[in-house]
Hints:
By secondary structure, the chain is α+β, with helices and mostly antiparallel strands. The chain has seven helices and three strands. The chain has a three-stranded mixed sheet. The longest helix has 16 residues, at 11-26. The protein is elongated, with a radius of gyration of 25 Å. The two termini are 43 Å apart. The model has no long low-confidence stretch (mean pLDDT 81).
Amino acid sequence: MSYPRKAEKQISELANGLIDPVLAKRAGINTALLGCWDEIAGADFADCTRPEKIAWARSSEGGTYKPGVLTIACEGARALFLTHAQGELIQRINSFFGFAAVHQIRIVQKHVSQAPKRSRTPPPLKGEAARKLEDMMEGIEDDKLRQAVKRLGTAVLGKGRR
């Protein structure tokens, strides 16, 4: 008996399905906004800003929609420059959503930078593994190719030591 296969899903789709409702309830934003923030904010503000939440206005009238206020965390003195560019940023945010979602930006000064990334260079090989790699690269004459093979071999042969 064969069962029909369900379509494969990426982990990011599953995670977004779990995270989006929580973000929407607590902050009024979604993972798509967070993921595209670098493009929305532009090169000037991508590294020093982060969207925090959108406070949606409550309408007393039946069914009328009112745009919200986006709170953005910004580092130090860059907040002044962000204040001057907030009209353009509001337009970019609204074009991302496809409707007038935000009418005002509230800037909060906070530390935004992410932790520095770890070095991806593996430690050099020692002993038998180093000799084995040198034997494998014996016939390679091109320096660039030799360096690339050495980096690859160091990463592959070094995995067993962990």
